[in-house]
Prior knowledge:
The complex is a heterodimer.
Chain A: H1 2-24, H2 48-54, H3 99-114, H4 121-124
Chain B: H1 2-9, H2 11-38, H3 41-45, H4 48-58, H5 65-69, H6 71-89, H7 92-102, H8 111-134, H9 136-139, H10 144-165, H11 170-190, H12 195-213
Amino acid sequence: MKKSALFTVAVPTLLLLMIAVAGSQEEIEFVDNSDFSNAQRPPSVFRHEEHNEIAELEDCAECHHIYDDNGQKLEDESSEDQRCSECHESRSSGRKPSLTRAYHVNCKGCHLKQKKGPFLCGECHVKQ
Amino acid sequence: MVDVYTFVSGPLAWAAFTICIGGCLYRLISLIVLAYKKERFIFTYMSFSYGLRSIVHWITPFATENWRRHPVLTVVTFAFHISLVIAPIFLLSHIVLWEEAWDLRWPALPDALADTMAVIVIAGCIFFLVRRLKLPEVQFVTTASDYVILAIVAAPFVTGFLAYHQWVAYPYMVIAHIISGEVMLVAIPFTRLSHMVFSPLTRAYMGSEFGKVRMARDW
């Protein structure tokens, strides 16, 4: 009896756990565009780990930033636990850019400034 | 490539828009000044209502005798001109750039529709090219510059279409697209493309003369 309980409960639970863990550590390959209801372009290619290694980015808040109500960036805080769309809405308001503008200015703006990385529409939004 | 892009999408774009808008204003003002000096009667002939009536009449497909006599040309020219003007203004990729630069945004066409409109413009250019080569009455008023203008108009749409589909030499195609668009903007005030600005005026004048002076129908 005990043996069958092990196989019907413990083993599947363990398997599920392993899948969940493996899934959560899967490398990010694209920007998650699920906040755009009618996306016209393929999601932007973005390999998170590879990008930060090449760009030598240590500070998460470079992208995962937090700004206070006065538009001041809070130096010691970051927002990895939030979705970009929790702050950036579909329309710009005041100095806070819309979600599309936030992505474009953040990614492309930095690439142009650093003269590294993709900067043309189709270099990120690659058609499969 | 970054530097090339920064240059063609920055200073060169500023120059192209400035020359286009400034050039059109210059041509418009100098035309009015010239008319005032040499053919002042034009101003007494001009009528707002007859002018507007004629413009509305001629921008309605098949409304005029001439449009009805050339049904194929009518369909092509309307589809061509509507696509030529609407597609670039309401193209998502263009709006995204305005948003990036100025935080401006307006509704966009679905990409698939804009893509179709680009094909319509390219097909229209081919139609006009064949028409210039084949029809004697068009040949008669054709000069070399007319072919150059057709190429100038087709180029941004051909490169834009290819860049959108990312088929060949993508980065170069985008740069070629930007430059060819700027060439077209600069060409508008100084070539026959200036009919973009002048055609409402010539139409309004003819409409006025037919209505107010000759008391004739606007055909």
